[in-house]
Amino acid sequence: MPKTRHELTQPEQVHQLGHAERTPLHTHTRGHLVYPATGVLSLVTKSGSWIAPPNRSVWIPPGFAHQHRAHGATDMRVVFMAPGLVALLPAHPAVLVMTPLARQAVLSLTGPVSRPAGARARLRRVVIDDIVAAPEQPLHLPEPADDRLRAVAHLVAHDMSSPATLAELGHRVGASERTLSRLFQAETGMSFPQWRTQLRIHRALLLLADGVPVIDTAVACGWANPSAFIDIFATLVGQTPGRYQRSIFRQVDEGISDSV
């Protein structure tokens, strides 16, 4: 069973995670924002995963069992929200845009300077007002439960540079293309091509955060045409891969200077 963590005495937290480090499965009684000031952070639940680079944050409502996984050395900042602010955010886990103003407010809340309760409350309100103005980011990758779908997901994830058709994958796992197609829609709410695109984008976010060039990232994630990758990435993430990568390293540099 997930461990319930009590955070009332620690409304803001900072955790340093090493590459591939995972937190235990746990729940919180209060909703909270999780922001990777450096590194990239995955939120994993039984229903799927969300991913956030340093220009995004993850929102986790109260009571959701979850764990975090770091991709690269990750400076994880956690800010718990009062019930009145929770009501302004989605009722489900979500990836949200981290604007420069919201980022500075979170860094101030989780920094070494002690602030009165009233000042912290005002900073939280700044964070919420700024991030709710931007649309929720479609960076959720649903986790299939059916054993055949899980086998397909494993095959796809381990050979993304040479994408097989669903019929070919079905032959390898012992299920028909029609059956798998129906199951993907029923269990994930997506068609197989839509689900695979989300997986590719998740992988691309990690590669770009590691500094892999855009064209190399496109090839590694199964796109034969870099232009198609750029178009799809921009549609789902809200900016081109190059701009996304530049924004990550700019924020990392700012984070280093902020901490000096």
TrEMBL record:
Pfam families: HTH_18 (PF12833). Keywords: Transcription, Transcription regulation. It comes from the Bacteria. CDD domains: cupin_NimR-like_N. InterPro entries: Homeodomain-like_sf, HTH_AraC, RmlC-like_jellyroll, RmlC_Cupin_sf. Residues 150-247 form the HTH araC/xylS-type domain. SMART domains: HTH_ARAC. This is Helix-turn-helix transcriptional regulator.
